[in-house]
Amino acid sequence: MADLRDKVNVGMENISAVLEELKKIKDKSNKSIVELAGMGTFLHNIYTGIESILKQVISDRGISIPTSDSWHSDLLILATDKGIITEITKNRLAKYLAFRHFFIHAYGFLLDEEELKLLVDDVFDVYSSFKTEIAVFLAN
Question: d(Cα 73, Cα 81) in Å, to the nearest integer?
């Protein structure tokens, strides 16, 4: 378990570092397309970091990681079913999963600043909930 906690802590530290960078740009007015793309990259980094942590926790419990074409959403469902995260957090993270899909398959210049702002404004609280729920799960 100590090894898992170390891995989770490294993941959490990386996500926290990305959040700090996101704070520096989120309230800047008249963002360039490069800045918007950077914000999108940060959101993508945060979500993939969360997925990585979930995969580590699930694997540590001897549970198989989903491998279907819908494995990203299946992972959130599995994490909820196993009591790792709550249904509320799963639903909040689903917005970032949807963004991740868009971000990977779209062009950066198609990012909508207002939609990005909504995600960025909420990500700090979503991550805080996720972090708390992981800590509680690992403590049991």
Answer: 12
